[in-house]
Amino acid sequence: MVFVTKFRHRVFSDRHLARMEEIMRAVCADFETELVEFNGENNHVHLLVNFPPKVALAKLVNSLKGVSSRRMRQEFPDLVRHYYRANKLWSGSYFAGSVGGAPLSVVRQYIEQQNRPV
After folding, report:
1. Extended beta strands in 8-78, E state
2. CATH code, residues 2-112
3. pTM of the shown model
4. How are strands ordered across the β-sheet holding 34-41?
5. What residue stretches are annotated with the Transposase IS200-like domain (predicted)?
C-alpha cells in the first residue's frame, strides 16, 4: 500500500517515519495482520501488509490512515501546519496492489530501497 500526504506536502522526517511505523504496526496487530515492511519519504509511505481475506482492505486502510493521522497530530505539534481541511494529514486516495505472484524478497527490497529524508 502507498499513502500520500495531502497535496503531497513534504511533512515527514526520520523521527516522524519511525513513530509512524510503530503506530501502523500496532494498528495492523489490532486487525490480526502483519506489517511485513515499512518505509517512506517526506511525502508518502510504503507498507507491505500480509492479511487474510476476512480483513476488508478499505477498513484496514481507513484505520491505518485515521489512527496514524490522529496520533501524529497529538504527538508532534510541529505537524499541525500540514493538516488541511478537517485536520487531514493524508490524501483521500491510496494505492493498494496485490503481490501474490511476485517473490516477497523483490517487493521487500523495493520498499527497503525507498529513500528516507535526511
Report:
1. 34-41, 44-50
2. 3.30.70.1290
3. 0.85
4. 2-4, 44-50, 34-41
5. 2-114
* Pair 112, 37: CB distance under 8 Å: yes
The set of cell numbers assigned to 15 is 523521527
Helix (H) or strand (E) holding 2: strand 2-4
* 67 contacts: CB under 8 Å, gap ≥ 6: 23, 26, 27
Q: pLDDT in tens for each of the 118 residues of the chain?
A: 999 999 898 999 999 999 999 999 999 999 999 999 999 999 999 999 999 999 999 999 999 999 999 999 999 988 888 887 667 899 999 999 887 667 777 877 777 777 655 4
Using CA atoms, how far apart are residues 57 and 94, in angstroms rounded to an integer?
11
Q: Which DSSP symbol is given to 117?
A: P
The DSSP code for 7 is G
With cell 511476485, the residue in question is 102
Where do the structural domains in the chain lie, given as residue ranges? 2-112
